[in-house]
Task: structure prediction
Amino acid sequence: MSGTGNRGAADEPRWRRGDQILWTYTNPAHPGLYDQRPVTVIADDEKHLAVWLESGTRMLHHVLADGSGIRTADGPARFGAPRAQGLKRWQGPGIVAVFRPGADYSVWFFVNRASRTTDAEAASSGSPAVPVRRDSFYVNLEEPFTRFDRGILTSDHVLDIVVDADGTYRLKDEDELEFARGAGMFSDDKVARIRAAADSAIDDIRAWVFPFDSDYPDFRPDPDWPMPDLPAEATWDFES
Result:
């Protein structure tokens, strides 16, 4: 992993549309392991960085030391038990992820399962294909991102918010946030700051400010974009 840098500062060029970068999460409790997603840049400006994660992309993720899924562990062990490096492919439709400088959350735009219609399904029914709309939003609480020469770095804060197209929202993984506290991953003060960040994100949801009010729900990737891949030096212990 390369060191962090200031790519995107006023005196340096930003990434261009179509550039391939690495969207990387680190975890201080498990140094040397990564959640890493090769993605394609949609936009990069002073207001935000938007990236496209293609369905089927190979990505690194954490697994338990025996290769089992993290969520098979109970309670605080889900965060404190020894881990290893895993490899998997992104399942389901591709997503748009938006990061804002200094923000302690990112927003992921998902296709609602209930509204998916593939071209093949449309053809078999004799109906015209319906353009895909990403009308489900996932607010991921995390450290404000930093840049390095090949992508961005952040650290997940466990607590999330699921938002529907009508602005209805609900907190997700509050139990896991308490498990992380119990495992010593987060202090009481850190948990309080994470919950305060969730409150701030909820204020943005209620106001329906950027990126919720953007055109990203209707985004379609360039068909000529190749699927990004992990760096040649990437290694893993288990593949699923």
